[in-house]
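Continuing the series of single-chain predictions for the mutant panel. This is the parent chain; the variants come on the following pages.
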Amino acid sequence: MAMSLTVPDTWEPEAFTAAVGDAVWAPSIHNSQPWQFRRTGKGIEVTVDEARRLPACDQDGRMARISCGAATFNLRLALAATGLPARYRFGRDPVLVHLSPAPARPPTPVERRQHWQIRRRHTNRGPFADRALEAGVPELLAEAARREGGWLHFVAGEHALASLAEWIHDADAQLRTSPAYMAELQAWSTAADTSVEGVGLYAAGAAPHPDELLTRRDFGGARHDSTRDVVRQPVVAILSVLGDGRNDDVSAGMALQGVLLTAADLGLATAMYSQPVEVPATRERLRRTMSGIHQPHLVLRFGFAPTTCYTNRRPVGDVIVA
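Parent structure:
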C-alpha cells in the first residue's frame, strides 16, 4: 500500500525569510526592487510595491511585473534548493503569484547550479570581449526560456543587428526628451555605491559612447574617449512570450531569470536593454520582427566581460509584508 505524503500548508517563517533573501537578487529596472512578499496560512503571495513602480519609464507597470516574475523564479528556486519546492498559480489583483508547497523532493542538478548563481549573477554594463560563444550555447539559453514559457529570438545577420541597434538608440533618445523620464533616471542614479537601491557609479559602468553598438542607459558613469565595443559578432536576442497580459509579464520575468542564471552558470555576461519596449512604436517594430506572434519584453546581449560592480539590495525585512 502506497504511503501518502503530507504536504504542509505553508513554509516555516525561517525558510520563508531565507527564500526571500534570495528572491530579492533578481534584476529590476533602475534597481527599483518593486516587489513585496507575504507569508500566509496557505503559502506565499508576491505583489508589486506600487510605491516603487517608475511612472515615467514604466507607465503601464510591465517592467515592474517582469521584475516580480524574476524574483518569483528566485523564490521558487530557493525553496526547491531546500527540498521543499513550490507550485505556483497566478493570483487576482493585487496578488501577482501565489506559491503553495509541493511534495518534498531533492533539488535537481539544474536547480542546484542555478541557485548557486543567484547572488553571483549581475547585469554587466561594461565592455564585452571579442570572443565567440561555443556552439550549442544559444540553444541552452533558449531552452532555459522555454522551460518557463518564454522564447529567445536571436538576431542574426548584420542588417538585422544594425536595425535593432538603431531602434534601441532611437528609443533611448526619445525617452530622454521627457523631463519626467530624465528626472526619474537621475533620482535612481546615485554616486553613493553604498545605497541599497538605484544604480551606483561603479555598477553604472562608463557613460554611453556614440559609437557603441547597443545604446546603454546613462546612469552617470564616467566619460571615455573611444568606443569600447570591439565585438564583431555579438550575440543578441529578444525575449518574448506569446501573450501581452498581466500574467504574461510575470511569465516573461520568470523566463528572464531562468535565462540569466543559465547564462551565469555558463560563465557568460549579460546586458539588458528595455528602452525599445518602453516606447510603444518601437515595441511594435520588435513584435513584427518576430513574425508578429510573440510579444517582446526585453533585449538581451550575451558574451564575455569582466565582473563589474553589483547593485545593492534593500534589507529583507523591507520587502516582507506582515
